[in-house]
């Protein structure tokens, strides 16, 4: 029992001696240990932005009891970060003393590129460090530190499309801007406005400002206006200055200025009506009833059922100002009604062939007229119009304002008779007027002779009394 107790005491004493010796050696630096700490000191900017570089400031500190040499610090970027051209991903420190304070730490800077399509969020990046203990080429230490980088979406908006490229003069027309958030972060409190510096194009029913409270990344919104161009404006391309204002994620106001083009002017319209008919020639009045000038106007009568054109079917009438008109004449034969005049009919009446007689009908179709012109944009435009006509055998009249065949002869005879009657009446009136004047002169002459005779008679009586 005594032997066991003595052995136990000896063993315990030996342990205490060993521990004390180890502590003393360690305090004298005879037991060496190495340790490195790597920390992200700063990120510039505080949140990485898509498509922009980000700079990392890294502190490397030796907190162990052994001096270190040949320290290498490597940043291992992963999506959405990548190496910047000309920038190194590994930085070296030649020597770090043991037990460093924070102020003694090595400061290293790295620069990375953020992908342009990076989504908002937090991403991990590994930083690997290797070093050797001073005085020993075999004892190498390695550490890996994972840091987190924040990415904030990029706010950007653009006008993708405008719903039209041109508007007419003095016409209320819709104008729509399609605005898309092409960034990676939502836009808030967005204000959209536009202005024509020349004042030709103006909004109606509202002002030129629209508000959008929220627009998520990748979403689009349509902003609608009703606009009108000055009726007296010169046709041409006008500039719209468009301004977009919005707030970013930090509630800072940003603005984007851009321009768009809008053509004012373009097409016009025409009114075609019957003017007159003479000896088979039909004259049509063509008026520019639109708000734009028409250039190089050509009027044509196309092939159609019920009518046949003798001679040229087209005529160029030149330019037509808005509100102006011109006359276009064609030799037109109707093939719609029976009783076509024979070839030996009255001169001045349009005739139809035997073949035409077989296809005539009692119906009356409108005459199709085609108008071609160049608009203010330089584009060739075709407009089709119809003129209501009344037809008889082989000739054309409009709205009963003309006759053909015997009806035309009767009308012409009636006109001649009217002229003859008017002439006879005029001659008779002149004769009666002159006769009346002659009678009045004769009466005046007779009255004068009577007075003279009375005077002469009075004079003779006096002489006899003497």
Number of strands: 27
Judged by helices, strands and strand pairing, the structural class is alpha+beta
What strand line-up does the widest sheet have? 10-17-16-12-14
Low-confidence stretches: 15-32, 339-363, 397-411, 459-466
Share of residues in strands? over 45%
Biased composition (Basic and acidic residues): 439-457
Protein name: NPCBM-associated, NEW3 domain of alpha-galactosidase
InterPro entries: Ig-like_fold (IPR013783)
Transmembrane segments: 416-433
Q: What does this molecule look like?
A:
There is one protein chain. The chain is an alpha+beta fold. The chain contains three helices and 27 strands. Strand 16 (about 235-245) and strand 17 (about 255-265) form a beta hairpin. The termini are far apart.
